[in-house]
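Quick start: what a row looks like.
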Amino acid sequence: MGREDQGINNNLHRWQAIPRTLCFVTYGSGAERQVLLLRGAPTKRVWPNRLNGVGGHIERNEDFLSATLREVHEETGLTVATPRLAGIVHIDSGAEVGIVMAVWIAEASEQNFVPSVEGSLEWHSANQLPTSDLVDDLAILLPKVLSMQPHDSPFFAHYSYDEHNQLRIAWQA
């Protein structure tokens, strides 16, 4: 199959999406389990001073897994065991181009991270997650991901915004 057979030129008027990745890095188990969150730098254009997982864009020569491993290492200095795909989120912000985000969970073998220019890294108890300063979807998304078992199938979700710019999340079974 050649490039032309991919049909890209025939789809220029269809909705398109930017691929992104988001990973929740954990350490420990049971009551001692921790999750690493990134508090965005105050100078960041997107979510300054707000807590999120680590991740970001996907380079042209990467797949979702390679991008996840690169982003985790760039933002934390950690090398994680093979991340497990937790879900796929389709994000419609109302613009001509949306986002398709792969959500991952990965286990770190240590807690010593390298400071990030993206913001400050913070370990939080998985049993007592912060309730403030979270990126809008994290209050719902993070507990869902942390409660998943290794044999669980990935979830699928659609994010959109209502007329008051409030996030709406639709989960698929």
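That is the whole record. DSSP finds two helices and nine strands in the chain. Strands lie at 16-27, 34-40, 51-52, 54-57, 84-91, 97-107, 119-125, 155-161, 167-172.
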